[in-house]
Here is the input.
Amino acid sequence: DTEVTQTPKHLVMGMTNKKSLKCEQHMGHRAMYWYKQKAKKPPELMFVYSYEKLSINESVPSRFSPECPNSSLLNLHLHALQPEDSALYLCASSVSGIYNEQFFGPGTRLTVL
Amino acid sequence: AQKVTQAQTEISVVEKEDVTLDCVYETRDTTYYLFWYKQPPSGELVFLIRRNSFDEQNEISGRYSWNFQKSTSSFNFTITASQVVDSAVYFCALSENNNDMRFGAGTRLTVKP
Here is the structure.
């Protein structure tokens, strides 16, 4: 299984809602990542988990809260988002460090109203 | 600070033409990693190649080839005999010292039949 899955594919939420994005991989990878990608822009790294510990947090607002329950799962909890947070959220995984090739999921397209 | 420049915002070619996508990077580190990713219209990023700073050998994979030149800080990507299925946004990316992953702005390639 060489796939990274993400749910949901699309999400529309209000600014007062709480929602979560989920990511799963079964490749035995020990590093997982969240990226944010705005339209016609490159992906921007948000968080890196390495061996289930948060190793990089790119100064992301606290309304985004990552969680890594185990080495196969990665969640991104969303609360009190702003319309400018609307974007494609990509999850990726790699064997270990960020210097390895990353396998990306299809993304969750988030719209904040 | 690390930086990746993809000066070509958009390129349009006719099928079977060769096309080269440019990537210039900046880093002060001696150890770093360079990547190319493809993002087709479906949105999912696909890993193409990874190079470390100590390996300047050029690589060929089918119709794809990469030219890594440390002297000019460039890591260019050539598609030979382009096909319509090559239409996508191509990102060059840099990771240095196991910290962070920075993508270039991307080059949108359109291959017309």
